[in-house]
């Protein structure tokens, strides 16, 4: 079955995107990402060295850009100006790389997106030639606004970043999915494999996660579980689940021709 994820005109086999932070070392990072099967890996430019700090270990030595699509992100940015500046630096470091993840946070406690600043940054970045995948609130109106600005993917949160609380508002996600003409990926809040499967069963095009893998007791094993969950959820969505029947049952076996009837 040819069921590729298309982002900014490029095809990917895996619908699982993973972060590179919070692991104990680069070796564990690479092992977990290999187990996940992810082809797109997101990197926090303000927290991870990809060449801006000479003499320090470089993540790109472990995750070479010729093997993985590096997705620089603006984690830790609280204004549109900071986010734009960070991604322009990333483009220089990655030789003109245009695909980026935008996130502008509202406060350091909830890490909820600041949507006015996110919209402002998205407009600047799209005009500047970036291909913007954007972390956003699960607000269908603002998600549509980001799409209309020209973002190549919208990524509503399932719940707060790093919370592991899973999908708290599936109804809003469905509204966003139903109206979107660009990929919709759940970003933030996934805690375990069932959360990822549910996101895919709802019709999401993919799932982005970091903490759920990196903070598991066995990150490599959890990465493998997430890979399977995303694949299973996608297959279930394509297969089409049976209709729910709230007040009646439907026996698995035929009822006609029973002995004694």
Q: How would you characterize the overall build of this protein?
A:
By secondary structure, the chain is an alpha/beta fold. Helices cover 37% and strands 16% of the residues. The chain has nine helices and ten strands. Helix 1 (26-36) packs parallel to helix 9 (219-239), helix 3 packs parallel to helix 4 and helix 4 (115-127) packs parallel to helix 5.
CA radius of gyration is: 20 Å
Query: In percent, how much strand structure appears in the residues?
Result: 15-25%
N-C termini distance: 45 Å
Portion of residues in helices?
A: 25-40%
Shape: globular
Quick one: how many beta strands? 10
Mean pLDDT across all amino acids: 91
SS-based class: alpha/beta
Query: How are the strands ordered across the major sheet?
Result: 5-4-3-10-9
The largest pleated sheet is described as: 5 strands, parallel
N-to-C SSE series?
EEEHEHEHEHEHEHEHEHH
Secondary-structure map:
Elements: E1 5-7, E2 10-12, E3 16-19, H1 26-36, E4 40-44, H2 59-62, E5 69-73, H3 80-93, E6 99-102, H4 115-127, E7 131-136, H5 140-149, E8 153-156, H6 170-179, E9 185-187, H7 193-202, E10 206-209, H8 211-214, H9 219-239
Parallel strand pairs: 3-4, 3-10, 4-5, 6-7, 7-8, 9-10
Antiparallel strand pairs: 1-2
Properties at a glance:
transferase, EC 2.8.1.10, Thiazole_synthase_ThiG, schiff base, alpha/beta
């Amino acid at each position: 079955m040819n069921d590729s994820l298309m982002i900014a005109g490029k095809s990917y086999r895996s619908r699982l995107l993973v972060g590179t932070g919070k692991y104990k070392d680069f070796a564990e990072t690479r092992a977990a990402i290999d187990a996940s099967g992810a082809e797109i890996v997101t990197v926090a430019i303000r927290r991870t060295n990809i060449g801006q700090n000479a003499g320090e270990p470089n993540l790109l030595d472990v995750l070479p850009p010729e093997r993985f699509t590096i997705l620089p992100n603006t984690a830790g940015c609280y204004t549109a100006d900071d986010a734009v500046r960070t991604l322009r630096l990333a483009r220089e470091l990655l030789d003109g790389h245009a695909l980026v993840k935008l996130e502008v946070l509202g406060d350091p406690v909830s890490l909820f997106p600041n949507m006015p600043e996110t919209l402002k940054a998205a407009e600047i970045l799209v005009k500047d030639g970036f291909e913007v995948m954007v972390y956003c609130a699960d607000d269908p109106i603002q998600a549509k606004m980001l799409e209309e600005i020209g973002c190549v993917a919208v990524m509503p949160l399932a719940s707060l970043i790093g919370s592991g609380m899973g999908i708290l508002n599936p109804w809003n996600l469905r509204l966003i999915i139903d109206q979107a003409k660009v990929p919709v990926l759940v970003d933030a809040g996934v805690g375990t494999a069932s959360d990822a499967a549910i996101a895919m069963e709802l019709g999401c095009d993919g799932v982005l996660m970091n903490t759920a893998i990196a903070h598991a007791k066995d990150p490599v094993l959890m990465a493998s579980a997430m890979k399977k969950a995303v694949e299973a959820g996608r297959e279930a969505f394509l297969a089409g689940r049976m209709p729910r029947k709230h007040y009646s049952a439907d026996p698995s076996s035929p009822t006609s021709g029973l002995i004694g009837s």
